[in-house]
């Protein structure tokens, strides 16, 4: 009998039994009284239904150290403190036990979400609606400090695979200002090179100011700002991912630089960008694979700028042109595809964030997301795809985004990521023309523009959606990145556009175009989409109904939650209470309304005087977001310790045990 016929028979049988047992139309009732669709759940007879079964995915039965999964059994013995904990499925419960050095066995409520971790290995006993198991062993006893790779290679590889597969949430940091520079963080890059931040905010204009010095100046920055040692240290702190902000143009180093590249779209300017950054993105994937750190690419700078902010590298100061010209959105999809062609096969590749902090037309934004998704799935069938709503209002719990794109429907950085087990999320931080173009001055610093992070080619101008070529070029750049990195072990995914301030319709169209390109190279890596930077209304229909499963695979939604801008008149105690109460509600609300996994991929301790209190309050809430989080940022910069995750670890504001990631 043909396989298709067998599958059809199973489905029809399941549906028939389900109707008799009170289960859903695509489920059947097991002999133990719960509903499911797998081979183990269609037992004989109709028993009392005790609810949907969560025991059909995520397990690690093939790994001898994780131990076997024993269905319809329970473990007695002594529970660890504060049991039970919540788990999404049996594999999640098993992983929680393995990643806790005090846990020796576990039991899971197959009809619910309760997971019990135990400090002994009692013999299993028969029990309906229970699944249990025992841990057979751990690399280095499960308590290595991460100081070296030695015998931890398999452990780091498993850490990498766990975060890429979604068995554990993201616990990571942003590599901000490595490729998309922000003056408030690395102001010395302007100061030491005679470039005014007022006149030349953002990466595009800085490199324009540098002139024929741009390759040497930027090359020195790329080679020293982040090194393999950073990946090693991140790994030792049990971080399992990084979000890597990139521009639409970096991927074209493969053609001698974007100025020499044969682009499918007409994009201006292209002759101002430094050459050589791609080699260090390659290294990130190598280091990510080595040190167990997954990489999420992030389209932080799109053609024309998706928000006009300086951190989107706008070609004209404060101008957002990304959704004003179809070529901008088309180029963004081309760039997404190029990234996937390069990195989708890398072990560290986890996924991509399609557009950071867009301030664009929602319809165009959604169209971009869908186009980008289709591209991504050509190369990666199930890597993470993260989409951002408008940066204001981030209404991720509304149908606009909850019903959108839901399931099921450079060498250095990647080398380091692979080596040290740090997955890499690429992030398109600077798009052609800049996706946000903002350049307002900071209230914290006397001389530094706060928002130069989209590398605008013209001061404070956001032009990304003003010209179609900018958007088209961004897609081309994404594709170039994927061509280069999708096969890297450290590649985890890509964020399609950072903090866009563009036309939402054009932004969505870019996301769709980029998705299509990405999936040519990476079938399942993460794709992250961003809402507009204001209002981040990720709970509104505009985003809740966009790019959802099953039509779209592994698309995540990005949120940027800071407690400094808009909180200037609030006391520290007020902010801490806001985090404990309002942020908790927002996390729960998002998870209830938006079917896409959520990731808080930018947050910091900025704005609160007590760094430890700020860190602990946010960790307590953000650890509950299903997709996880990445802190802004890693390195110590002019921004101070409140903006450095490395400093937070070193000062004892947070510990590696709070990451919920296995020590290697």
Question: Would you mind describing this structure in some detail?
Answer:
With 664 residues, the protein is an alpha/beta fold. The protein folds into three domains: 3-41, no CATH class; 70-137, Hepatocyte Growth Factor; 173-481 and 500-659, Glycosidases (TIM Barrel, Alpha-Beta Barrel). The chain has 18 helices and 30 strands. Strands 8, 9, 10, 14, 16, 19, 23, 25, 28, 29 and 30 form an eleven-stranded parallel β-sheet that branches. A hairpin with a 4-residue loop joins strand 5 and strand 6. It is globular. The model is unreliable at 1-58, 140-151 and 439-451 (pLDDT under 50). It catalyses: Successive hydrolysis of beta-D-glucose units from the non-reducing ends of (1->3)-beta-D-glucans, releasing alpha-glucose. This is glucan 1,3-beta-glucosidase. Residues 61-81 are annotated as: Disordered. It is an enzyme of class 3 (hydrolase). GO terms for molecular function: chitin binding; glucan exo-1,3-beta-glucosidase activity.
Structural classification: alpha/beta
Task: Give the proportion of residues in helices.
Answer: 25-40%
Oligomer: single chain
Count of individual beta strands: 30
> Beta-strand level of the residues, as a percent range?
15-25%
Catalytic activity: Successive hydrolysis of beta-D-glucose units from the non-reducing ends of (1->3)-beta-D-glucans, releasing alpha-glucose
Keywords: Cell wall biogenesis/degradation, Chitin-binding, Disulfide bond, Glycoprotein, Glycosidase, Hydrolase, Signal
GO biological process, one term: cell wall organization
Pfam families: Chitin_bind_1, PAN_4
């Amino acid at each position: 009998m043909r396989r298709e016929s067998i599958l059809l028979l199973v489905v029809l049988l399941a549906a028939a039994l389900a109707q008799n047992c009170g289960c859903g139309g695509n489920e059947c009732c097991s002999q133990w009284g719960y509903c499911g669709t797998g081979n183990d759940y269609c037992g004989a007879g109709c028993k009392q239904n005790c609810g949907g079964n969560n025991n059909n995915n995520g397990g690690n039965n093939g790994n001898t150290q994780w131990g076997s999964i024993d269905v319809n059994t329970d473990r007695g013995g002594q529970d660890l403190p504060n049991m039970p904990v919540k788990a999404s499925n049996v594999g999640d419960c098993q992983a929680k036990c393995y990643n806790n050095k005090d846990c020796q066995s576990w039991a899971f409520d197959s009809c619910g979400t309760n997971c019990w971790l135990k400090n002994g290995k009692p013999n299993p006993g028969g029990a309906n609606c229970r699944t249990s198991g025992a841990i057979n062993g751990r690399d280095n006893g499960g308590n290595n400090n991460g100081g070296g790779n030695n015998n931890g290679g398999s452990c780091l590889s498993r850490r990498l695979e766990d975060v890429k597969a979604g068995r554990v949430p993201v616990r990571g940091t942003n590599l901000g200002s490595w490729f998309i520079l922000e003056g408030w963080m690395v102001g010395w890059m302007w100061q030491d090179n005679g470039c005014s931040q007022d006149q030349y905010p953002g990466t595009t204009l800085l490199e324009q100011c540098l002139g024929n010095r741009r390759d040497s100046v930027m090359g020195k920055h790329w080679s020293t700002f982040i090194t393999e040692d950073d990946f090693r240290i991140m790994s030792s702190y049990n971080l399992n991912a990084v979000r890597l902000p990139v521009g639409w143009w970096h991927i074209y180093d493969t053609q001698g630089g974007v100025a020499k590249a044969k682009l499918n779209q007409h994009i201006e300017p292209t002759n101002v960008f430094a050459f050589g950054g791609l080699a260090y993105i390659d290294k990130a994937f190598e280091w990510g694979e080595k040190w167990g750190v997954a990489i999420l690419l992030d389209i932080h700078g799109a053609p024309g700028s998706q928000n006009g902010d300086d951190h989107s590298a706008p070609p004209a100061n404060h101008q957002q042109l990304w959704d004003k010209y179809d070529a901008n959105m088309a180029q963004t999809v081309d760039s997404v595809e190029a990234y996937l062609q390069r990195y989708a096969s890398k072990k560290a590749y986890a996924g991509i964030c399609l557009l950071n902090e867009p301030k664009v037309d929602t319809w165009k934004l959604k169209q971009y997301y869908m186009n980008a998704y289709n591209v991504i799935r050509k190369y990666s069938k199930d890597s993470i795809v993260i989409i951002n709503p408008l940066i204001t209002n981030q209404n991720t719990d509304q149908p606009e985004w909850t019903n959108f794109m839901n399931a099921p429907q450079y060498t250095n950085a990647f080398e380091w990521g692979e080596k040290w087990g740090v997955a890499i999320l690429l992030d398109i931080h600077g798009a052609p023309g800049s996706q946000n173009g903002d350049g307002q001055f900071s209230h914290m610093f006397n001389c530094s523009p706060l928002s130069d992070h989209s590398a605008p080619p013209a001061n404070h101008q956001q032009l990304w959606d003003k010209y179609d070529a900018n958007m088209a070029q961004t897609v081309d750049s994404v594709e170039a990145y994927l061509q280069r990195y999708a096969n890297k072990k450290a590649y985890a995914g890509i964020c399609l556009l950072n903090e866009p301030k563009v036309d939402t319709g054009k932004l969505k169209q870019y996301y769709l175009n980029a998705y299509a390109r990405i999936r040519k190279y990476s079938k399942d890596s993460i794709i992250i989409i961003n809402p507009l930077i204001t209002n981040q209304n990720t709970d509104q229909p505009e985003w809740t109904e966009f790019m959802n499963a099953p039509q779209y695979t592994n698309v995540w939604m990005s949120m940027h939650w800071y407690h400094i801008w808009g909180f200037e008149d609030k006391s520290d105690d007020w902010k801490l209470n806001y985090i404990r109460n309002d942020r908790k509600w927002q996390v729960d609300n998002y998870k209830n309304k938006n079917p896409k996994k959520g990731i808080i991929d930018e947050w910091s301790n900025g704005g609160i005087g007590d760094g430890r209190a700020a860190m602990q309050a946010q960790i307590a809430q953000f650890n509950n977001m299903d997709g996880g989080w990445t802190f802004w940022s890693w390195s110590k910069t002019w921004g101070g310790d409140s903006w450095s995750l490395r400093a937070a670890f070193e000062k004892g504001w947070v510990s590696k045990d709070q990451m919920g990631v296995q020590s290697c």
